[in-house]
Amino acid sequence: MAAIQGVLKSGQFIMGPNVKAFEQEAAAYLGVKHAVGVNSGTDALVIALRAAGIGPGAEVITTPFTFFATAEAISQVGATPVFVDIDPKTFNINPDLIEPAITSRTRAILPVHLYGQAADMDPIMELAKKYNLKVIEDTAQAFGGEYKGRKLGTIGDAGCFSFFPSKTLGAFGDGGLIATNDDEIAEKARMLRVHGAKKKYYNEVIGYNSRLDEIQAAILRVKLPHIDEWNEARRQAAKRYNELLKDVPGIVTPYEAPYARHVYHQYTIRVPDGMRDKMKQFLADQAIGTMVYYPVPVHKLPVYAGSNYRLPESEKAAGEVLSLPIWPKILDETQARVAKVLEATLV
Ligand SMILES: *Cc1c(COP(=O)(O)O)cnc(C)c1O
Predict the structure, then answer these.
(1) What strand order describes the sheet that includes 59-62?
(2) Whether the CB of 112 sits within 6 Å of ligand 1
(3) Which domains does the chain have, with CATH numbers?
(4) Whose CA is nearest to atom 6 of ligand 1?
């Protein structure tokens, strides 16, 4: 409340001192040279792609098992998303399937760190080097997550974050951030977010009105120092669920890859054999809210339909995944009740 009031009293609502300070604090936390605040995670993707030189004619390889915005951003800049199937264990893009999808038009790979778990970045970075491709990380669900001890969103050419309220680091409205060590990408992103102008009223390119709001930045500055503690609490809650659900027949609990520090933005189980929707309804009847992220893989949505993709692992996952309630301060008894009701569905 004090932080919000401070902004109200200052009367500086756009690009004020909190945006600047939050960008510095986020860059220090992530260990990158530049952090550029923008309007949303979606805009972070659009602006990062454009800042990295991705535009019409380019193909960008990504996963179809993600929120629509990942592919939408690629289309927004005039490029074409090329979908590659996932690793069924991690739900993230399967690096072994990327190379066969590379063509003479491929310009970038856009992995998503889904549910808070790292995509397997080493093979992705190797392919990027071999074929001279940019790597833009969709880190919307994984602020604070790690890959082999490195912060997610700092391994590729740029990392894109969302501060949508439900994300691991959430604002009280929309917000986003681009993290990069590349001076040129940072400079272009800073310019694109303010109508393509380096100097006000001397606009050089067609850009966007996509600034991180000063009030949101002030709120994020209060929350950022807690992120490690909150992510650790999510990890503990995930461990408790793993324990509670380990003997429930048919359920597959989340797999944490040895290279990942999963931050459990979502705790997502698989419920096989056509039971998923029944289980979701049964839990809802007991006042337990669950979500399906995502019921339709992006290549099957009408806007991208017509493409002849067959991506069996993504399609299978879409029919099986169920995300259980999780947040840093979830109580043991809440989790025990979720597990009990869930188990009762199967008998
Ligand atoms: C939330 C999310 C986005 C978009 O972020 P917004 O801030 O809502 O625009 C993009 N990609 C993924 C994977 C997301 O979860």
Answers:
(1) 34-38, 176-180, 158-162, 134-138, 106-110, 59-62, 80-83
(2) yes
(3) 2-86+93-225 (3.40.640.10), 227-345 (3.90.1150.10)
(4) 41
